[in-house]
């Protein structure tokens, strides 16, 4: 261990002194057992030797359990009340999921994030971003290298693989979803958006032929055509963050009030009657 050069070790100081200088002193204070024993052997005169056990300064190490709260990037936990609240200056949590295939061009998102970074640097009142991109696939390593090459100061990107039970928890915790799925046929709908809507998470989704059947532009999300439009949408939706009074909060409110059918309800209403009809 290194010793602070400004404060020499006490034993070094003692070694340089003539112990006779301590004779005649009634009280001696020592900071270690080593010095305590040394003085009891050398100073056999009639004096009192006090042993001061080395300890930390209380003002340097305050009792955090009484005055402080536990913090994460997004939440505050008050150790006295047990309450967990969202931090006032927290970053916005952006979520996207992918199978990392050619159906999804993630350079669109990366370019949009670069533009968002420029907005923040230019002084726009916008939160920092934590962008989570989940999934596995053949192009993941390629995009991870691309992500690592970026020098963001207000954006953090991570690419985890989540267990099935963790994925809906993440969706429910996010502030905004991004979908880059472009149907190769132009006929199918992205199930990831269905998942996001199931957690009442508004979505920015890239345009393709039948997307409007699922994403209602300006109602439960926004539809974009390129990275520039996406960056402008991120700026628009997060300009009031973390207030729920802006457009993002309105989209979430619309999703909650839309009366979406759950999977089992949809099955029971549309599919089960047909099966029963043909089985009777």
TrEMBL record:
InterPro entries: ALG1-like, Glyco_trans_1. The keyword NADP does not apply. Pathway: Protein modification; protein glycosylation. One of its GO terms (cellular component) is endoplasmic reticulum membrane. It comes from the Eukaryota. It is an enzyme of class 2 (transferase). Coiled coil: none annotated. Keywords: Endoplasmic reticulum, Glycosyltransferase, Membrane, Phosphoprotein, Signal-anchor, Transferase, Transmembrane, Transmembrane helix. Belongs to the glycosyltransferase group 1 family. Glycosyltransferase 33 subfamily. Mannosyltransferase that operates in the biosynthetic pathway of dolichol-linked oligosaccharides, the glycan precursors employed in protein asparagine (N)-glycosylation. The assembly of dolichol-linked oligosaccharides begins on the cytosolic side of the endoplasmic reticulum membrane and finishes in its lumen. The sequential addition of sugars to dolichol pyrophosphate produces dolichol-linked oligosaccharides containing fourteen sugars, including two GlcNAcs, nine mannoses and three glucoses. This is Chitobiosyldiphosphodolichol beta-mannosyltransferase. It comes from Sinocyclocheilus grahami. The gene is LOC107568161.
